[in-house]
Amino acid sequence: TRSTRPQRLLKAVQKNATRGDPQSVISAIDHFCRHSEWAMNIGDEKGTILDSVVNELNPEKVLELGTYCGYSTVRIARLLPPGARLITLEFNGDYAAIARQVITWAGLEDRVQLVEGASEDWIPRMKEHFGIETFDLVFLDHWKDRYLPDTKLMEDCGLLRKGTVLLADNVICPGVPDYLQYVRNSLSYKSCYFKSHLEYTKAEDGLEKSVFLG
Ligand SMILES: Nc1ncnc2c1ncn2[C@@H]1O[C@H](/C=C/CNC(=O)c2cc([N+](=O)[O-])cc(O)c2O)[C@@H](O)[C@H]1O
Ligand SMILES: [Mg+2]
Description:
The protein is α/β, with parallel strands linked by helices. It contains 10 helices and 7 strands. The radius of gyration is 16 Å and the shape is globular. The ligand Nc1ncnc2c1ncn2[C@@H]1O[C@H](/C=C/CNC(=O)c2cc([N+](=O)[O-])cc(O)c2O)[C@@H](O)[C@H]1O binds next to strand 2, helix 6 and helix 9.
């Protein structure tokens, strides 16, 4: 049977990227998405904004919601100091299997914990299962109708501290209106919008950075 797009994306990484070189993995995926098949990775333009937020925070504990093929996982993990940890949640087993191989190809498996499961099931288990007190950075890039419920769930589970940064992809396209309204109007967040473009296209999109005020 015909291969899937994530399988073809992984093949492009294994063919064009150098093992242990995260930047070459990022470039191989961006080239594949620009010249072969579009895929819903954050991409190189919004990815540069993601990089700047990670570099500014120098986070120890990072949570990513929605791994997909692991592109943003690699972008984030490559910037983390060796002692830091990135936990990424992905409930589609096929995508998780691809992402594991992409992350390993980049040589970042010792900084990344890919958990195969749903965010709503695993957010409540972060403390007892992973010994996580609070996260320094959360990157939201999963189904758009989950951003708001999962943010409220993280609040209720005490996983956010004064200064925790939530960085949300796709706040314009496909859009997350309920989440945007919440973080922009809640007294518990200081929120700002980074205007950019939908990955590999000229359409507008952007990232919303929201700092939890406690
Ligand atoms: N509750 C949950 N727990 C764990 N994993 C979950 C989850 N909900 C979804 N996922 C996973 O997260 C990814 C979904 C991404 C949705 N993005 C998108 O739909 C998307 C669409 C466009 N677009 O259409 O242009 C552009 C983009 O940048 C996008 O991120 C998939 O890998 C999916 O399996
Ligand atoms: Mg996205």
